[in-house]
Amino acid sequence: MTTKVLAIDDSRTIRNLLRVSLESAGFEFHSACDGQEGVEVFPDVDPDVVITDINMPKMDGFGVIDSLRSGPNRTNVPILVLTTESSDDLKARARGAGATGWIVKPFDDTSLVSVLQRLTGHVS
Amino acid sequence: MSMNSIRNTFFEECEELLEALVEGLAQMEETSDDMEVINAVFRSVHSIKGGAGAFALDRLVNFAHTFETVMDKVRDRELAVDEKLMALFHRSGDQLSDLVASARDDTDLDPTAESAIIKDLEGYLGAETATEEFSFSAVTLDFDGPAAIELPDIPLEEAETTDEQANTECVFKIHFKPERTLYENGHEPLLLFDALAELGSLTVAADLNRLPSFDSFDPNDAVIAWEMELVTNKDEQSLQEVFEFVEGLCDLQISKEKASVSLPKPEALPTEPVQELQQPTPSGSAEETPIEQAPALESPKTKAIEEQKPTPAPAPAPSGAAQKESRGPKPTLRVDLDRVDRLINTVGELIINQAMISQRIEELDLPTVAHLTNELEAYKLLARDIQEGVMAIRAQPVKPLFQRMSRIVREASDATHKKAKLVTVGDSTEVDKTVIERLADPLTHMIRNAVDHGLETSDIREAAGKEPIGTIRLSAAHRSGSVFIEISDDGAGLDRERILAKAIEKNLVAPDVELSEPEIDNLLFLPGFSTAGQVSNLSGRGVGMDVVKNAVQALGGRVSITSTPGKGTTFTIVLPLTLAVMDGFVISVGDQTMVIPISSILETIRPNAKDIHVVGTDSQVVSVRGSYVPIVDVAHSLGQKGKSGEKSTGILLLVATESQDLTALRVSAIHDQRQVVIKSLESNYTAIPGVSAATILGDGKIALILDPEELIKLAHSNPLDPFSQNTRMELHHA
What we know:
Order of helices and strands of chain A: EHEHEHEHEH
Number of helices of chain A: 5
Low-confidence stretches of chain B: 129-166, 260-327, 532-542, 719-734
CATH class of the largest domain in chain B: Alpha Beta
Shape of chain B: elongated
Shape of chain A: globular
Low-confidence stretches of chain A: none
Number of domains of chain A: 1
Radius of gyration of chain B: 37 Å
Radius of gyration of chain A: 13 Å
Distance between the termini of chain B: 85 Å
CATH architecture of the largest domain in chain B: 2-Layer Sandwich
Number of helices of chain B: 26
Number of strands of chain B: 23
CATH superfamily of the largest domain in chain B: Histidine kinase-like ATPase, C-terminal domain
Strand content of chain B: 15-25%
CATH architecture of chain A: 3-Layer(aba) Sandwich
Number of strands of chain A: 5
Structural class of chain A: alpha/beta
Largest interface: A-B, 46 and 50 residues
Oligomer: heterodimer
Mean pLDDT of chain A: 82
């Protein structure tokens, strides 16, 4: 069974980069271009892991984490934050909202793929 | 999609973002506090930065970051937008556009304007934000939380392991009890364990105490806690980082126990290193196999330890492969020691009970007893399984204890300016947990003594034609149902004259006393004895060998000493095995029923009269497959009179001991093989030479348990005994 990744990022470039890295590593790749779309498609995609940006229009990454960790669509899937930010305050906020991990852009594909494989390998 | 086309889409996207930026800035001119607008402007700059980072466009990233940081302050309402700032934002937007174009077309751009704008932007930022920018550009990959799993990829880690800090390993105790939210947030404890295991050697024990009964089980609840022990050369900070993203989602306590193993410092290397024997010590393997690195201290002798290891350390594997092995710790369970001990006690009683039932049934002499035999046999086997299982719970390999000693040797050799190395043998020997714990202090003391008093300085050693580097040999083995631990040095041996003089001076013995060599050696164990002419750093601790002796005796063991002038000194600690149960032959010796440990018996022989030869007046040897083995008559050794001369009677038990390679013990008969519960003689009666303990047999009678090694020593301590070492050797090769 292929592992499904849902990447939520408003940057087309980042989405493209993630798609290339993750599809070539054998993941099934889905994306959304803002938080709101991400939360909307989440039940249909039913991903094994979510990667989300923080700064996004309509709904930011914290909003994504909040709605995926509470409410009707509540899920336990790992949520990785992928962002250029690296401040401890933001990390703490993401952690408080229920994020599973934090990756700083620009990301290293090999490491990202490895982290995702480990996370999902143990989860599925 | 190729990397090139992704790059192209990035610049397309940049055009859109730059358009959005210009539009946003224009809107800000009109309504400077519309959050949606400010956010949009921020995101435009931010997205350019994010994409630029992916293509390593550092200059673009750096500028966008400064721009974005000021914009962030506006967004956070820390900074009010006035005309001057607005103008700067426009200039910044233009500059960003130029930088994007320059990056896309790979053309040069005059940095003057850029520097000026950055300087102006930074004027709106405090000093701390400016430094943050630096750290941003320096860090290309910052994996935290679960991403910390990948830490070995970060070059910084490599650098750390090569410095001094990497030489010291510490033991961290980690208590980790996840809350329900930890799982709800998608965390997996196993990944954390994996990440920890990459920092060093990890032991994980699951605490299942709070596991509810099945009917009240809530699958969503978090009830399991873990107790971990990590031996690592990393600092506490590295451990905390692993748990960074589960902070607040678990009960986490990390405590540093104590320094455990240190690797030899480079300066401890000998002056004449042999190139091909020197072990490469790449950082990766150094933290995993510290003890194997220790002999590198003395490269010419590196082979010594490798030969003694059952599996010599292979060439250090690439760190990736090595790390794989340390992953996936076996699940373990923490159990209160009292519970185990209660179990051990009960098993002892069970075994006595089993023996008694067997005996009673035999005594009944029922016609149908055969039907019971199978069931009794099964009962016996089950009881044995339980005993072995319980024994295994408490047993631990001595390896960690031995590993700690390599550091003691190094410290002692530093303090005394003597060169010393530690060779360990039998690290995998399993010993009762309590014994290991209580042995740490005596061993430490004896190892220090061995370096301080046992070894000579390099000059003296070389003058005596020895290796300049002294060897401390630490070995553990199971023999005759006991654990043997030996600490030996290849030093000068005991200075008996000085020991005796010291003992007389201290009024420990009478001045005119006549003592044998072993008796002089044993003076070392007297309270308040110290041989050091002057109190050195090490010996001035007020701990003498008497303390060591008491500690060993408290464990039901004994300590003995042998020394050869010029060759060295060996201390032997003999400890009973953990559980007070062992396998033994029930034998007759004369008219006495006794027990002898099966573990010491290699073979039993009912000899033909023609195989037994008389040597000298009273002693006998038996021919076993072409070699002659001396016979020790057990009854005779124990002081029973008569009967021992008859050649053909009795059964011979071939035993191997350390001091005598093969000896045949003559007993009258073997009755049974069974598990017996060991009851200490010392604590209930008094020590008897040649007897290690007593037991209760099925009929309720007490039988003595023989100690073959001591029995043989008893026999050979007889001055009339013809089997001196030489005679025996000749016979053996006849």
